[in-house]
């Protein structure tokens, strides 16, 4: 999928407007209340205090436990169809465990050392923002930024190499939900944006956004199609209509992981939303069919070593023709057709 510069400029302009909306809403709230703040989100609103222990535990170990339990349920139900081979197991397990070790020191350094140096004396300066104002500010800033990070990794040939690991799995489920190249993970743009907002005093809203987003994205990757009842029963259709346009569901996100777009169901050219599918609706990159693909991954995928998938370009693939091997040129399909057939070229961007 090549970049349309006119559409890109238009979409970026719309994005800047969307980014400004929660800021404008908070400003108006402050002005309408004559500068008097009724609550601070440094503490939870009284009606949400009972959730504090739950969210604290979920952040520390709860999400990991949830992922593992759901994965066990998927395996027990036989939803992987014997596709979880030795090489696939290695890359999934490494990508699940490594971020738990890599990201904490990186984000801690950014939050405790880099931010106080870059923006000194600004810690907790937004602590006056009401809880829900902070929640929607972070939810929009975090997820819209990730939408663009994800979209550009599909549309820019060079960036695709850092994201293709996530699309190499020939199955959907908890096993592959964290499957990413380490560079894609470490430079995850919204991680640093959210860390900055937390430093400015939005820590509790950030925690709530993290938990809500994690459940939505894990649910969208799961091989358990929890959204099917909403499509099956007529009484639930109005809820389904809203739900599938607001957040990512198994049907819309599975379509993004399909290995083809020629069947009217797969849509790896779009459906980039992570928590909110709303971005795809706004920018015209969404496709809703309420159907599930027949197969996943990439058609030309060759089962590859875990270190090439996770650590490219530090380690290269030894498999001939792999886009992660030495000397392979990354070109979109449109360019590939003009390259001599004996060139070592690989279709690197699904388009």
The count of DSSP E runs of length 2 or more, i.e. the number of strands, is 2
User: How many H/I helical runs?
Assistant: 13
Elements, N to C (H/E): HHHHHHHHHHHHEHE
Helix content: 55-70%
Please state the overall shape, judged from the principal axes of the Cα atoms.
globular
C-alpha-based Rg, rounded:
21 Å
Chain-averaged pLDDT = 83
Query: How many angstroms separate the termini?
Result: 4 Å
How much β-strand is present in the residues? under 5%
Largest sheet: 2 strands, parallel
Low-confidence stretches: 330-351
Overview of the molecule:
The chain has helices at 5-32, 52-76, 86-118, 131-155, 157-167, 182-186, 189-221, 228-232, 237-246, 250-256, 278-283, 306-311, 333-336, and strands at residues 329-332, 345-349. The protein contains 13 helices and 2 strands, in the order ααααααααααααβαβ. It starts with a helix and ends with a strand. The chain has a two-stranded parallel ribbon with strand order 1-2. α4 (131-155) packs across α5 and α4 packs across α7. The chain is globular and about 65 Å long. With 351 residues, the chain is mostly helical. The chain has a domain at 5-227.
């Amino acid at each position: 999928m090549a970049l349309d510069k006119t559409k890109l400029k238009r979409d970026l302009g719309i994005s800047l407007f969307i980014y400004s909306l929660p800021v404008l809403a908070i400003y108006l709230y402050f002005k309408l209340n004559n500068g008097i703040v009724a609550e601070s989100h440094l503490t939870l609103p009284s009606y949400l205090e009972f959730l504090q222990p739950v969210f604290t535990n979920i952040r520390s170990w709860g999400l990991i436990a949830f992922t593992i339990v759901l994965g066990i349920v998927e395996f027990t139900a036989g939803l992987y169809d014997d596709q979880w081979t030795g090489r696939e197991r290695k890359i999934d397990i490494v990508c699940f465990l490594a971020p738990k070790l890599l990201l904490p020191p990186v984000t801690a350094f950014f939050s405790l050392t880099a931010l106080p140096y870059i923006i000194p004396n600004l810690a907790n300066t937004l602590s006056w923002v009401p809880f829900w104002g902070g929640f929607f500010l972070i939810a929009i800033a975090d997820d819209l930024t990730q939408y663009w990070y994800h979209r550009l990794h599909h549309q820019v040939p060079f960036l695709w190499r850092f994201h293709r690991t996530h699309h190499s799995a020939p199955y959907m489920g908890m096993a592959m939900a964290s499957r990413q190249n380490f560079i894609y993970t470490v430079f995850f743009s919204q991680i640093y944006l959210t860390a900055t907002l937390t430093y400015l005093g939005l820590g509790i809203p950030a925690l709530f956004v993290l938990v809500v987003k994690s459940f939505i994205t894990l649910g969208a990757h799961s091989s358990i199609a929890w959204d099917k009842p909403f499509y099956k029963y007529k009484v639930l259709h109005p809820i389904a209509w809203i739900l599938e346009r607001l957040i990512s569901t198994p049907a819309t996100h599975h379509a993004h992981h399909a290995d083809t777009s020629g069947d009217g169901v797969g849509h790896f050219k779009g459906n980039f939303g992570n928590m909110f599918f709303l971005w795809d609706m706004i920018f015209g990159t969404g496709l809703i069919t309420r159907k599930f693909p027949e197969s996943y991954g990439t058609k030309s995928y060759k089962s590859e070593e875990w270190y090439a998938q996770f650590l490219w370009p530090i380690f290269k693939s030894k498999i001939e023709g792999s886009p992660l091997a030495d000397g392979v040129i990354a070109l979109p399909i449109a360019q590939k057709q003009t390259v001599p057939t004996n060139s070592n070229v690989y279709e690197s961007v699904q388009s």
